[in-house]
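Annex B. Sample input.
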Amino acid sequence: MIVTLFGESHGPAVGALIEGMPPNIEFDLEQLIADMISRRPGSGLASKRKETDDVEIMSGVHEGKTTGMPILLLIKNQDVRSKDYSFLPYQPRPGHVDHPINIKTGGAADLRGGGSFSARLTAGLVAAGSLTRSIIPEDWIIETKVGALGGLEGEEGIALAEQARKEGDSLGSRVDMVISGLPVGLGEPWFDGLEPALARALMSIPAARAVEFGRGVNAGKMRGSAHNDKWGVDMSLSEGADGALGGMASGAPIHVRITFKPPSGISLPQETFNQISGMMEELAIKGRHDPVIAPRARPVVEAVARLVLADLGIQGGYIDG
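Annex B, continued. Sample output.
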């Protein structure tokens, strides 16, 4: 199954094209709406950009069922404020893709709000992931939560994020995910293994900086005698065992942590080179941005994992494709 994202942050619309979805699959419109609401901006620690994120299904679905043809999902942009980016491309924002993509395209890229690299495009990911709910077996369970904000959990993390927002700054964060109930052996060799496929997809989420599985970086401090998970009665594994071995599901839950950098778009003044004046100058960004990524990234992480599992399930014959 192939998912292609399209659109720009301040263009007419964003969306996703899904190819390889099996035919005769019913999808839950109410669940699609709920999934989109969980990601959209406009409240709490999210950007104050107001988008309804209504999804228009342009092709590939007839009378509530998939046809087997490509599915085009369209999400119109309704609340753009392009004047906030009038300083581009001559004074690129620190920590943003403005300069690399401007050079790569010879000045042709739409840089407003991050253009095609904006987290706005994750709306298409969530919409695509929602449609795969109907083909993934019910006992394949994906659970996600905000793990930490600025290294702190719970109310302490929320308070720290609010403080950063009031100061015009931003904060790093983490999303934790547990995938359970997968059949032993799900996953393909090497690049299409469970962990490689998940890692590649999760690292494509804007601002992702690290993906850890199981004991993660702490495994580098351990001995094999402590790290190895013994096979118990009926080939069961103990709590905390690796959920994938050799790229295939082991029967234990898969524990994943996805770390996100602080959002680069902050209103706190920063210095950056002005290509017109030829001098380093202060830049204060006026756009509407998230002070922290994890709360809105959580449903994106879940959607991406769902897409990967659906694809591996079809490849391995666990899902009728």
